[in-house]
Amino acid sequence: MVGILFGIGLTLAQMVNPAKVLAFLDLAGNWDPSLAFVMAGGAGIAAIFYPIILRRPRPLLAEKFQVPARTDIDARLMLGASLFGIGWGLAGLCPGPALAMLGLGYNSAMIFTAAMIAGFGAFELYDRTLTKSKLA
Amino acid sequence: MENFTPISSLAGGMLIGVSAVLLMLLNGRIAGVSGIAGGLIAPVAGDWQWRLAFVLGLAAGPLVYGALGGPMPDIQFPMASPIGLIAAGLLAGFGTRLGSGCTSGHGVCGVSRLSARSLAATGAFMFTGFATVYVIRHVIGG
């Protein structure tokens, strides 16, 4: 249910439309600032309600809250985010909309999503190799 | 700016926010799509069911929206080349996992908590996103 709501939000916000996303990223062209409103709407709601929820001892359906506590900005974070931005700028798709579009039957979205899942897999392999070499 | 849609974009963003809030209330998790979906690649016992449910719901979202009579966006892919799409998908998949998040986990949830890591990551992917589109449209295509 939560996922469905997320998918409806992405559709209403036109995040599932690569042309719309790229129009936001095209600062030097015919810039469409709409996507800033999507982020502001989402972050605004979360900023109001997260603190209220996190006062509870635990979530309704799980043992504990799992909120990232790290504050260090490392090379891995910045390199990963930068690579992601290039992919986002190339296709106008990010992981949420890519998965949300699976049921809509666009070949281009399918190709992107398949490659994205391969990217997830490549990361798992990379991460394991790294962990092994650290242990060795 | 003739395609500017502040109202529907804000409303869609707020729905995403409500969804993120519900996921925290119910499952105690950050609504980061790359992390949720990426965690399905090497599933951990007892920790994959909610992930799969979220991803299936995500894929059902646009269909439910259409069934409820919502006007579908005029979806267009400026990047039509399969090679370009594959490169973009690989970069987005690997990059979001390496960087621990994407537009939802960092850009919405992390920014809402004013997480230093998320603010830095969001700045980075917005910057390279802007730069990539600039190069494609105004350097190569210009």
Rg value of chain A: 18 Å
The average pLDDT score of chain B comes to: 94
Q: How can the largest sheet of chain B be summarized?
A: none
Q: Spans of chain A with pLDDT under 50 lasting ≥5 residues? A: none
Task: Name the poorly predicted regions of chain B.
Answer: none
How would you spell out the order of helices and strands of chain A?
A: HHHHHH
Question: Largest interface, counted with CB-CB under 8 A?
Answer: A-B, 111 and 110 residues
Provide the succession of SSEs of chain B.
HHHHHH
Q: Work out the count of structural domains of chain B.
A: 1
The count of β-strands of chain B is 0
Number of helices of chain A: 6
Question: Total number of helical segments of chain B?
Answer: 6
- Summarize the biggest pleated sheet of chain A: none
Distance N terminus to C terminus of chain A? Answer: 44 Å
Distance between the termini of chain B: 19 Å
